[in-house]
Amino acid sequence: MRIAIMGAMLEEVEPFLELSEHEPLLKYFKKHNDIEYGGNVYHEAKYKNHEIILGYSKIGKVNATLTAATMIEKFGAEMLLFTGVAGGVNPKLKIGDLIAATQLCQHDLDITAFGHPHGYVPEGAVYVKPSANLLHLAKEVADEKDIDLIGGIIATGDQFVADKSRKDWIKNTFEADAIEMEGAAVAVVCEAFNIPFFIMRSISDTADEGAVEDFDEFLKHSSQRSSSFIVSMLDKIK
Ligand code: SAH
Predict the structure, then answer these.
(1) Ligand 1 centroid – CA 181 distance (Å)
(2) Rg from Cα positions in the chain
């Protein structure tokens, strides 16, 4: 199968690309071709029976939309796995913990002036759901590795949330468990093209006043946790 692996920032996909530090991951991905397209670099690689297209979009919903659509339409991805970091909202989520999105929404999409709910536009839906099969697979991986994987709602918006009142508003409005800036955009693209997808995030911060410092400190470690989980999932995909 041709599988897209996508992050938003270089640091989020670096575990797949760096040679020395992450040998176990890299041994599968080191033979890659780099292709520049639409302002980004896409890496084609092989992993067991799969062809991989790997890349990062740059931050935010517009960039994420461009990359997800490119991976599908230009590079022929038949499945998309997203790996990265997020701000934790559910108090059960500590820094480094993993969350698999069971639903995604856009917290900054607002035509409530017309009487619609937050996150809704006509012909759309507030929540988009990832592939049930991939979520099931993720649960298997988590059980085998004894990882406490939380499934939950990820709220996406073009805003780094580092403010408790904004965080609480998002939590209460969408029942969100984590906040980031790309997942729901990727979800909308994949759903439109009928491509099974999975969005994994490892917690880098808790989206409140200490978020910037925590993010900088834990970005690398949390990115690695998310990436290695994705590699374990690849092992299970037929
Ligand atoms: N430090 C970076 C900016 C990071 S923006 C720079 O200066 O260039 C945060 C990124 O991590 C986004 O891609 C987003 O998806 C995710 N993220 C992590 N914590 C977040 C939070 N609290 N709010 C929103 N996005 C968050």
Answers:
(1) 7
(2) 17
